[in-house]
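Transmembrane protein: C-alpha cells wanted.
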Amino acid sequence: MIVPKFWAEGRIQERVAGDQVTVRRFGWSDDSPLAAQAHADQRTREAFDRVVRGEKLERREPKRAYNGADGVPIREEIVERQGDSVITRNGYGARCLNTPDVLFVDVDFEEGPNGSPLFSVIGAALIGAIVAAYAVKSWIAVLVTFVAVLAFGLWRIRVDKVKVAPAPKDPLQAVRGRIERFIHQHPDWHLRLYRTPAGLRVLAMHDVFAPSDPAVVDAFQVLGADKVYARMCRNQNCFRARLSAKPWRVGIGEHLRPRPGVWPVSPDRLPARDAWVARYESAAKGYAACEYLESVGNTMKVHLNALAVQELHDERAGATSGFPLA
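Answer:
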C-alpha cells in the first residue's frame, strides 16, 4: 500500500519517424516535490520508450483518486496516519481508513428484482402487445393480445395458488447466512460484523493478510464481497473502510470542491475545498458510518495489528455511538 504525500506529472514530446509523440506519466514521493517530479520523469521516459517500440500504451495516465486506478497509488489527501494505517479523504469528501494487511470485507445487500408473478404476467402481456403491434399494425389486435395474455396469466396464478406478492426477505439475514457458512468452513477465523447503510462490513481479527492472499480471494467470494471493492483491494494492495458519512446522506448536495476532487489541488483552489470540508464535517458529526453488531467464530484469537486497526476504526466510524447510519 502506497499513499504518497507529493505528486507530480512528467511530459515528453518528441518527433519519431515524422510523427509527434507525447507521453505523460505521474510520479509520487513521501520525501519532496522534487523527488516526485524525478519519479514522474523516470516513469514518463520508460513509457515513452515503450510507445516508440510499438507497445499499445495510454499516452496520458488518467488522474484518478482511487476507483479505477490500476497499479497507481491512492491519490487522496492524507488526513491522519496511525502506524501502518492511513486515513484519507476520498473523491466525494468522506474519510476512509486504508490498511495494508488488516482484512475488511465490504458486502452489499443484493437488490434483486421484485420476484412477484404479477409483474411477470404484466411484462409478458406488454411483450405480446408489442409483438402484435409490429405483426398486424392494428390497435384492436394489440388490445386483444394484451388482455388475453393478462387474463391467462392471472388465471394460472389462481389455479397454481401462487401468492401475488411474496413476503419480503430480510437482506441482512441472507448475508448472515453466508457468514455462518463461512465460519463453519473456517472455525479458526474471528470476524467482527458491522451494519452499514447498504450492507455489512466484516473485519477479520485473528490474523493479517496480503490482498493477494488466496485466503482473501476465497473470503471475498464466499462472503459475497462487492466486486468493485475486491478489485480495488488487489489493485491498490490494501484494504479499505469508510469512516464518515456519505455527504448526500447528511444534507450536503454539493460535490466536494473543486471538481474533480482528485488530490492534490492547486493552492488557489484550496480555500473552496477547505470551506466545503468544514461544512461537511459539521454535518457529519451526528452520524456513524457503521454499527457494530457482533463477533463470530474463534473470538479468543486476536492479532495485535488487527486489534489496533479495530480500535481506530470503531472510534472514527462511530461503530458503538448509537448515531444513525449514513
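The radius of gyration is 26 Å. The first helix runs from residue 33 to 52.

Cheers.
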